Amino acid sequence: MHHSLVAMLRHVNPRVFYAVTNALIIPPCLLFSPSRGIAYRYFRERHHLSRRKAAWATYRNHCLFGQVVIDRFAMYAGRKFDIEIEGYDHFQRLAELPEGFIQLSAHVGNYELAGYSLKAEQKRFNALVFAGEKQSVMEGRQQMFQGNNLRMIPIRSDMGHLFDISQALSDGETVSMPADRIFGSDKAVTVNFLGVKARLPQGPFRVATMRGLDVIAVNVMKTAPQRYKIYVSPLEYDKQAPRREQVTQIATLYAHELQRVITLHPLQWYNYYEFWNQ
Predict the structure, then answer these.
(1) How many other CB atoms sit within 10 Å of the CB of residue 273?
(2) Do the Cβ atoms of 258 and 265 come closer than 8 Å?
(3) Which alpha helices (DSSP H) does 77-198 contain, by range?
(4) Three-state SS annotation for 96-116
(5) Are the CB atoms for 209 and 233 separated by under 8 Å?
(6) What is the CB neighbour count within 10 angstroms for residue 41?
(7) Model confidence over 33-51: pLDDT tens digits?
(8) pTM of the entire predicted model
């Protein structure tokens, strides 16, 4: 089915698939998916919308998520999107340094597009990805990444990906990883996020502090049917501070930047679980 979708997207405008998804797929899915209640509470409690507006935002949120998934396959089919980059100079500056750096992402917008847009010919880019994706998705990603000096590091249950990350950073390469979900280890750092305490995984922040690496946050948000905006922001922390304090500083800066982006694009929050867990 994935291969058929890619083949069709070579000839059919993605907007046709948007319409089918919005009208025929999303409504019945909302009836049976637990993500409906999670998204609804997100809009009610974090953005303080009325019941009617929160319900409508929940529907639009799922429609946008469907469009992001379609856009990924459209990219595999060779479709191009208009991309605006805010803060590209921060990425370029770090890409020109001999040392590696950390790029933090989140489950918002369409982060995968960053791998096709932020290029550093002189420095290999390593992206941490979920190892359980369908083979067709991994093949599509690999095809897109081939010309961008980028390699995928699958997250493995035996934590073997940590050795790949360490080696990449030792070689002065870039490592991209999500920092908004706790996985593999329960160690977390608590931050203020959208007015409530939230727990973020320590791992991505500790990787940076172990080597005193520079860190940037990158979020890719959909702004129109065929247009995206990439936000690149440096997370400048005190590298002379105690390690635990450094971790807290980066996590706080990351949460602040993620909140800024989510405030601008509240419909594109795709963490469909009890993130705040109150």
Answers:
(1) 10
(2) no
(3) 88-95, 112-117, 135-145, 161-170
(4) CCCCCEEEEECCECCCHHHHH
(5) no
(6) 16
(7) 999 999 999 999 999 999 9
(8) 0.91
